[in-house]
Design a protein that fits this description.
By secondary structure, the protein is α+β, with helices and mostly antiparallel strands. It has 3 domains: about 160 residues, no CATH class; about 70 residues, no CATH class; about 40 residues, no CATH class. Helix content is about 40%, strand content about 15%. Strand 2 and strand 3 form a beta hairpin. The chain starts with a helix and ends in a 5-residue tail after the last strand. The C terminus is likely disordered.
Length: about 350
């Protein structure tokens, strides 16, 4: 999640755990602890693929954070004694640190909670920025600064509301998952790996990716849809060249759970993470191979994806509200004739009137 959310969560957790000993300084310390695991972004692992895959690694591991919280609490108590017992201080520090990666595990990117075991954990029921999760925490922390005699209770209330929102997001995701299973039953895509995650800033409109053998389906489904059938768009997955060995390609395959796409763009082979983005606007794309006479692996190069346009927002908002009034094929406008007019299908993805 974003830094503001993690700071608000850390502050609220610190206030709740501190109880009657809570103070503005405790809230500030909790906010700092809540953002601490993300300092791994300053570490360079040598190439863009490694930087992506190894982010949220050791600094988000329960096997690291729990012992670190004990060491930090002991050092804190030795250097600057507090009103807390060592056990109470350790609990406060540990919970502030640990709730950070636990929250991150509810996003599409995933979190290596059990590093050095290299298995990203992800239950992607939240978008990386969601005001409906963050605002209750911020309000609780701000209110506790004003009404200091109720700090712990207000922080606990904010945590309760935000936690209920996570529960709602899981219920909504399960609802969409049931729709997908029912619609694909009896088709070649039945039982195939499926990735479901909310679209930006909400938990009503969900993006669905179903990975087949040679192609994948992509579409959007809103909790508010009257007709729950999803208009899927079928797109090729592409293939990695036989005989070409790339450790970075293997890393991406493992990290994404196989949800990647291969596109030949001129002489380069670009690998895209299908989990993060929409349509052709995929957040993580890397050139990993190059062809002259034959394909050879190259050092990873980050490829910029097309930027989302503000003009998309009203259409996506209408799709969120259940609008099913338009129909189209998926294609990014920037790749098409200038006279193309942006529309949205029930899949909710931008396309031009003219074919690409």
């Amino acid at each position: 999640m974003d830094s503001v959310t993690q700071a608000a969560l850390g502050a609220a957790v610190a206030g709740a755990v501190a109880g009657r000993r809570c103070s503005p300084k405790i809230l500030l310390a909790g906010a700092a602890l809540g953002t601490l695991p993300d300092l791994d972004v300053i570490i360079s692992y040598g190439d863009p693929v490694s930087d992506m895959v190894k982010h949220r690694g050791f600094s988000h591991s329960l096997f690291v954070l729990i012992p670190f919280s004990l060491l930090l609490s002991w050092g804190w108590q030795k250097m600057r004694p507090t009103r807390f017992s060592l056990g109470h201080l350790w609990l406060l520090v540990a919970v502030c640190l640990v709730t950070h990666p636990l929250l991150d595990s509810f996003t599409a990117y995933g979190t290596q909670l059990f590093w050095p075991i290299n298995t990203p954990i992800a239950t992607p029921s939240l978008f990386i920025i969601d005001p409906l999760y963050t605002v209750p925490l911020l309000l609780a922390v701000l209110a506790s600064v004003i009404w200091r005699d109720r700090m712990a209770k207000l922080c606990s209330a904010g945590l309760a509301v935000s936690s209920l929102y996570i529960v709602w997001s899981l219920v909504a995701m399960n609802t969409i998952e049931s729709r997908v299973e029912q619609q694909l039953a009896g088709t070649p895509f039945a039982g195939q790996p499926t990735f479901i995650t909310p679209t930006p800033l909400n938990t009503l409109l969900w993006r669905v990716v179903v990975k087949g053998e040679h192609s994948y389906l992509e579409g959007l489904s809103s909790i508010l849809d009257a007709d729950v059938e999803i208009d899927f768009l079928d797109k090729p997955l592409g293939t990695w060249p036989k005989g070409v060995v790339s450790e970075h390609q293997r890393m991406l395959e493992h990290f994404t759970g196989g949800f990647i796409r291969y596109d030949q763009r001129q002489s380069e082979l670009v690998v895209s993470d299908l989990r993060l983005g929409m349509g052709e606007q995929l957040a993580f794309q890397f050139a990993l191979a190059e062809k002259s006479n034959e394909w050879v692996a190259i050092e990873p190069v980050r490829v910029e994806s097309p930027r989302a346009r503000l003009a998309q927002i009203p259409n996506l908002w209408l799709r969120l509200l259940g609008s099913q009034d338009i129909d189209a094929n998926l294609c990014h406008i920037s790749e098409c004739p200038q006279q193309a007019v942006p529309l949205v299908s029930r899949s909710g993805l931008l396309r031009p009137v003219f074919p690409c």
